[in-house]
Design brief:
Order of helices and strands: HEEEEEEEEEE
Protein name: Outer membrane protein with beta-barrel domain
Number of helices: 1
Largest sheet: 8 strands, antiparallel, barrel
Helix content: under 10%
Strand content: over 45%
Organism: Dyadobacter jiangsuensis
CATH class: Mainly Beta
Keywords: Signal
Strand order of the largest sheet: 1-2-3-4-5-6-7-10
Structural class: mainly beta
Number of domains: 1
CATH architecture: Beta Barrel
């Protein structure tokens, strides 16, 4: 959370450089993120995973230091995993889940020069996620498919570098999700037996959670007046 707090202190407590030319400017933003990981146990086969995220937003600077932005986004993740079933090892690979969503964000800016600055602010979003997971009890492998519908209030912080009058390079610095609610429903079933059961539930979170993005970078284009 420290990165978010420091960013907001810079935005609200420091002297602001006047950037009157930004007021009223409309823009389109795009960002991508990727993540790859590999786990190699002392014995047995290695496992690996991957994930990506894509977002596109349309926004407008209300003032030189405040902007609002509507966005749509999607994500997908997959993996290769190994499960020990008795004396055999089963390897499964493929897509583990995907999601789509939309949201609105209020961003407040601190411009350090005509090239560089930081921004941060709250956002609200709703999303749908499909998740496929596997669990093993040592004898049977269970496949669980879930559908999730969630709504959240979050805080984020980032930085920008102005390439020219039309293009900005943006990057995420930190993300916090203090208010989050999810309703999930789905089914679990054994892959080799007829065992199956339905599952559903409501989860909510009212305390801050914090994470750094893996690899994320974005571009922003300002439309002509």
């Amino acid at each position: 959370m420290k990165i978010i707090y420091y960013t907001f202190l810079l935005i609200f407590c420091s002297a602001t450089i006047a950037f009157a030319q930004l007021e009223g400017k409309r823009f389109i933003s795009g960002a991508v993120s990727t993540n790859f990981d590999t786990y190699k146990p002392e014995t047995g086969k290695s496992t690996n995973g991957y994930a990506y995220g894509v977002s596109i937003g349309l926004g407008k600077f209300k003032t030189a230091t405040r902007a609002g932005e509507w966005s749509i986004f999607s994500n997908m993740n997959g993996s290769k995993k190994n499960f020990n079933l008795g004396t055999d090892t089963t390897t499964l690979k493929g897509i583990d889940g995907f999601g789509i969503g939309t949201g609105y964000r209020w961003s407040f800016y601190k411009h350090f020069s005509d090239k560089f600055g930081v921004f941060g602010g709250p956002g609200i979003s709703v999303r749908y996620n499909y998740i496929k997971q596997f669990q093993s009890d040592g004898q049977e492998l269970f496949e669980q498919k879930s559908n999730e519908i969630s709504a959240s209030l979050d805080l984020s912080a980032g930085a920008y570098y102005a390439l020219n009058d039309r293009w900005w390079l943006t990057a995420s610095l930190a993300f916090s999700n203090p208010v989050y609610a999810t309703y999930s429903f789905g089914k679990s079933k054994g892959r080799t037996t007829a065992t199956s059961y339905d599952n559903s539930g409501l989860r909510y979170q009212l305390s801050p959670s914090f994470n750094f993005p893996s690899v994320g970078i974005g571009l922003r284009y300002f439309f002509k007046d």
